[in-house]
Amino acid sequence: MTVYVDDMRAKFGRMIMCHMIADTDVELHVMAARIGVSRKWHQAPPKHDSHYDIALSKRKAALAAGAMPITWRQLGCMVLIRRRTGVLGDPATAVDEAMRLRSARTQTAAASQ
């Protein structure tokens, strides 16, 4: 199971939130259940990319249960890669890969004009 939690810090009421994503929705929901996050908090397509916003206490629980810590930037790049390729991507190479995909898209758009 590969589940990731980022280092974002966003206030939501009295809580501080971050994101939790996974390679598959099954893995994401299993981890959410394991750490006590209700399925009703799942943010899903088409309005959102599949993820949960979780409190920092749940982030700590997810890390203890085997989730991998990533940066907010890595998460954003991984989501971009998934939108383009259907696969979440590797956090270690996500930033470079996202830049490559953006560059290729820009070049394709410029060539078609």
Draw up the topology in text.
Elements: E1 3-5, E2 10-12, E3 15-22, H1 25-35, E4 42-43, E5 51-55, H2 56-64, E6 68-69, H3 72-85, H4 94-111
Parallel strand pairs: 1-6
Antiparallel strand pairs: 1-3, 2-3, 3-5, 4-5
Structural class: alpha+beta
Strand content: 15-25%
The low-confidence runs, each spanning 5 or more residues with pLDDT under 50, are none
Q: What level of helicity do the residues show?
A: 40-55%
Order of helices and strands: EEEHEEHEHH
Shape descriptor: elongated
Overall residue-averaged pLDDT value: 92
**Largest sheet, if any?**
6 strands, mixed
Query: How many domain modules?
Result: 1
Note down, in words, how this protein is organized.
With 113 residues, this protein is an alpha+beta fold. It has one domain. The chain is 46% helix and 20% strand. The chain contains 4 helices and 6 strands. Strands 1, 2, 3, 4, 5 and 6 form a 6-stranded mixed β-sheet that branches. Helix 3 crosses helix 4. The longest helix is centred in the C-terminal third of the chain and has 18 residues. The chain is elongated and about 50 Å long. The protein starts with a strand and ends with a helix. The model has no long low-confidence stretch (mean pLDDT 92).
Descriptive key words:
six-stranded mixed β-sheet; 20% strand; single chain; 113 residues; alpha+beta
Task: Provide a concise account of the structure shown.
It is built from 4 helices and 6 strands.
